[in-house]
Amino acid sequence: MVRDKRGDAVSEDRPERRLIAILAADVVGYSRLIAADEAATLSRFKASTNDVLASLAREHGGRIVKTLGDGALVAFSSALSAIRCAVEFQKAIALRNATLGPDERMVFRIGINAGDTVIEEGDVFGDVVNLAARLQELSDPGGVCVSQRVREDALGRTELVFEDIGEQRLKNIDRPVRAFRVRMPEAGGAALPLPEKPSIAVLPFENMSRDKDQEYFADGVTEDIITALSRWRWFFVIARNSSFAYKGRAVDVIRIGRELGVRYVLEGSVRKSGARVRVVAQLIDATNGAHVWSDTFDRDIAELFALHDEITEHVVAAIEPAMLHNEGVRATHKSAADLSAFDCFQRGMWHLNQVSPSSLDQAEALFRQAITRDPSFALGHTGLARLLYGRTAYGWSADPERDLLAAEAAARAALALDPRDAWAHFALSGALLYLGRHEEALKEAEQTLALNANFALGHFRLGQVLVYCGRAAEAVAPLERSMRLNPFDPQMSAMVDTLALAHFHAGAYELAAERAREAASRENEKRAPLILAASLARLSRLDEARAVLTEKVQARAIKLIGTRHIPYARSQDLQDLVEALRLAGFERLPELLALARERANSAMASDNG
């Protein structure tokens, strides 16, 4: 039974409006947990809500209104009671999780709102409930997010600290909402402060077998991952000796994160079974215990040493974008006034990866803000360079020459600050490629990989430059490697599209058509239909090719070939593409041929200049 502030019982038999607080809780990664073990997940969820949450709610004068598959709604007579219950619940769940394996942990997000709410037959309805659910989505895993109303009700009545994350635009809420995060109380002694840039500790991989050889293998993988991660200039990586101090000890990721002062912990295990070996690796956010990334490798024991290299390569390549994405999301939740230069960079990268004209505009503003706040911050210049040549690559630049020269200048500014930054060499290579300085672009692409051989986008850049340098057959291997290193990269559509182009110019038209069709199905990739039509034409499948060349696709072709979007070094490669499109029945052929001749003349003038 819900009671009002006077202690009177609230009737739940007829519709009425009452001033109450609503707590909305939701499990992070519930679908993944269900897929892994449905029965166990349902059991743990019921234990978390029916036992822990229900008991704490009663202690604070509230009740669970209902459970909603992977979440729950709880009603309280005061905002302060809701906050206290939420904090105690998160602490209780964290203690439970410390005794569980990574795939058994329940991690909750909580949102709290207060206001005039409709109560009918024990249920609650209205905008207050809807906003509580949206605030829950803003919460960090293991955290609590509240509305301004809730924060005002609690101020001066609790020692909890509220962090202002600014006005937020929330789904199905027609006005901006000011939101606050509750700073969760520390469970123990003082924690080391977190570095500004993403920080990670790689714990010794656990040998789950009695075979001593697996012990050497597990330690070797751990050491190689630490070494490889250290090549990422924007990571703070805990040294081997500190990480190995935890070897053979029970793992409490949140405690280790506090003791080492890191935000992320990578842990793993090695298990031998007969002639097979299984290696599991998982990246965990040590601030709340939430899973960020995981993968499993199963191989024959005879392939152990090859597996060693594969795991190191794959794990390091996957962790970088996973952390980048996680940090970007974290930065989007901070208020503008609280953003550091690194936060601006992270938020800018998040917008850059949304790949739209408006998102690129937002990214540019954030990268420039990062540079303004700290001119010596190399990544701010690198991000700006990527943004500027990317706008040209996508065909959205109003002045490609200006943007590309500015991109080159930004990349060189980054390199002046940090000559060994692989990201900066990657960005400079992109700017030089679209400026038509192919040999310089190739040199920078090769330098990118010399600095970091596990950089998935670095392999993509090398393959891309090789395609446009007329070395299509050589481009296939680095392009395929980039896709294997990070199959979920936001740039995957560009990787697949460029691989299709490489196959086309290498004469592998079946493979080109297959990859182009895949790329054409992906969002934001506008060039793939041209490659598909050209490949089908070379295969003499002219009816299929003509069907691809819609009026919209042909208009796009005119725009792309008339700009720097397809930056061939050799006019012959452009002529090959145009000839294939002619065979496919390209209706605006005179325009296309004129543009091809103009591009060829421009290339010759550049070579002679």
From the alpha-carbon coordinates, what is the Rg to the nearest angstrom? 28 Å
CATH topology of one domain: Alpha-Beta Plaits
**What is the assembly state of the chains in this entry?**
single chain
Number of strands: 14
Question: Which descriptors apply to this entry?
Answer:
single chain; 609 residues; alpha/beta; Alpha-Beta Plaits; Rossmann fold; eight-stranded mixed beta sheet; six-stranded mixed beta sheet; 24 helices; 55% helix
Describe this structure in words.
With 609 residues, the chain is of the alpha/beta class. Among the domains are: 16-183, Alpha-Beta Plaits (2-Layer Sandwich), CATH 3.30.70; 201-319, 3-Layer(aba) Sandwich (Rossmann fold), CATH 3.40.50. The chain contains 24 helices and 14 strands. The protein has helices at 30-36, 38-59, 79-98, 127-138, 148-154, 212-229, 240-244, 253-260, 304-332, 341-352, 357-373, 378-393, 400-417, 422-434, 438-451, 456-468, 472-485, 492-505, 509-520, 528-538, 542-548, 551-561, 571-583, 589-608, and strands at residues 16-27, 63-67, 71-76, 108-120, 123-125, 144-147, 161-168, 177-183, 199-202, 206-207, 236-237, 264-273, 276-285, 290-300. The strands form 2 sheets. Strands 1, 2, 3, 4, 5, 6, 7 and 8 form an 8-stranded mixed sheet that branches. Strands 9, 10, 11, 12, 13 and 14 form a 6-stranded mixed sheet that branches. α17 runs antiparallel to α18 (492-505), α18 (492-505) packs antiparallel against α19 (509-520) and α18 runs parallel beside α20 (528-538). The longest helix is centred in the middle third of the chain and has 29 residues, at 304-332. The model is unreliable at 4-12, 187-191 and 604-609 (pLDDT under 50).
